[in-house]
Amino acid sequence: MIKHTPLYALHQAAGARLVDFAGWEMPIHYGSQLQEHHYVRQDAGMFDVSHMTIIDVLGTGARDFLRYVLANDVDKLAHRGKALYTCMLNDHGGVIDDLIVYFLDVHFYRIVVNAATRDKDLAWLNKQAADFSVGLQERRDLAIIAVQGPNARSKTLPLLPPHLMDEASTLAPFECAEHDHHLVARTGYTGEDGFEIMLPANKAIKLWENLIHAGVHPCGLGARDTLRLEAGLNLYGEDMDETTTPLESNLSWTIAWQPTDRIFIGRAALELQKHHGVKRKLVGLVLEGKGVLRSHQKVKIDHDGEGITTSGSFSPTLGQGIALARIPVSDATHCQVQIRDQWLPAKIVKPPFVRNGKKMFE
Amino acid sequence: MSHVPTELKYTSSHEWARVESDGSITVGITDHAQALLGDLVFVQLPDVGDTFKAGQDTAVVESVKAASDVYAPISGEIIASNDALSQTPELINSAPYSDGWIFKIKPSNTAELAKLLDAETYIKQIG
Q1: Do A113 and A259 meet the contact criterion of CB atoms below 8 Å apart?
Q2: Residue A32 is nearest to which of B39, B42, B60, comparing CB atoms?
Q3: Cys bridge to B121: A33, A210, A318, B117, which one at CB 3.0-4.6 A?
């Protein structure tokens, strides 16, 4: 049975092209994926991401539990209302999922994981939770709306419940405010400023409609993908999975090695990998000529072997083909990518490609 | 509902073909095909002088989402490619049957024309 978010009827009425995404019928675009991409870079767009899985982590053991199952350390969350991006690893250091964890109260954290990995994430978390005083509660009662773009916050703030508006207006990046079952976080997946808002399903329709009246454009998952790729943000299942570690996925910065006595799942494997030397890395590629990069294209580096693109597309902001690729560790600045029967030159760059509307590489 | 002009011929792989007064065949992709692909961002055109057999992949159109081959509806030699598509591939989205044409072929065997679909048959197929 295909699943629908609380906003499904609105998407249908808006003429969205709907596709099956991890068992959810979701808008891929509402007319033009390119235009939706530009709305987010230049003004404000919004995404229904209610298919993502919200899990509340409750109990006296919540902090210790998360310090054990996550590679980043929730002890970095210095006060309530702080959020953190992290990977959840298996014993081999492979990435089970990436997620954001929100510190809401003593004994109360919230994590948001990918829709496609819901079942295995919950199974893994429940298995690990057995040794901790912690309860996991999936929040299917909440919808999530991501409002993103340079004007996203100013257009959203007046539409929030009064209590929340004041607090939300002063949030720094990766901070959140919660009131009356509404959570507003200054986070996103586009490389632009904005909010992600979790709220009761029955309030989501009204907020979506009000945002449209405020001039925020509905955007589909198609634009979300080109935006996150330009922003150099990994897509789980494409750019990383259980066979790759954060060290091979441009995510070393998300591993909290300190304090050294914190045991977390995957730590031993990551230390061993570091000790032996990491062999592969995830980089950005920019096609030098015209064309579009796609996932699973072969990459050739002179004297340094071969790699493969993990996701690729046409960058609407740059007007060039871009990709993330996993290649052997090398100092090379250029490579060749196989597109159909041709090998075409591409530049190797460090992601992101675009941040806050600006090109980020030379 | 996709636009399917009655005066054109079609293939089941969503190309359209127009017989010009000089006997050459102009080829593009249908309104239905461009809508499925979404915003086009790149077109790989055939070189003038290349020859193709009917059904052979001749050009590639790429949208943000996906790449799709364009097949020669009829055998022959390429006598023109629409260079405007290099800078403005979105012409295929906005005007699939006019400014968004892709290439022109000089047919080597006009009998092949009879194998192409008429508008009515093509409409049934995409319906």
Answers
A1: no
A2: B39
A3: B117
What does the DSSP assignment read for A257-319?
Answer: --STT---TTHHHHHHHHHH---EEEEEEEESSS----TT-EEEETTTEEEEEEEEEEETTTT
Q: Provide, rounded to the nearest whole percent, the portion of chain A with pLDDT above 90.
A: 97
Q: Is A29 left (phi over 0), alpha (psi -120 to 50) or beta?
A: beta
- The answer to whether the CB atoms of B65 and A290 lie below 8 A apart is no
Q: What is the pLDDT of residue A362?
A: 81
DSSP structure class, residue A236: B
- List residues in chain A touching B: CB distance below 8 A: 17, 28-29, 32-35, 222, 226, 290-292, 294, 313-314, 316, 321, 340
Is B62's CB within 8 Å of A291's CB?
yes
**Distance from A315 to chain B by nearest Cα, in Å?**
8
Q: Does B41 touch chain A (CB under 8 A)?
A: yes
Residue A160 · residue A63 · CB < 8 Å? no
Instruction: Return d(Cα B41, Cα A332) in angstroms, integer.
Output: 29
Tokens 């950005």 locate to A284
CB neighbours (10 Å) of residue B94? 12
Going from N- to C-terminal start, the domains of chain B cover: 9-109
d(CA A308, CA A294): 10
Pick the closest to residue A142 from A226, A216, A56, A54 (CA basis). Answer: A54
How far, CA to CA in Å, does B119 sit from each of A6, A102, A112, B116? 41, 57, 50, 10
Rounded Cα gap, residues A249 and A239, in angstroms: 7
CB pairs under 8 A between A and B: 36
Per-residue pLDDT of A244-288, as tens digits, reads: 999 999 999 999 999 999 999 999 999 999 999 999 999 999 999
B chain contacts of residue A313, beta-carbon cutoff 8 Å = 64
pLDDT value at position B1? 67
Q: B38, A226: Cβ pair inside 8 Å?
A: no
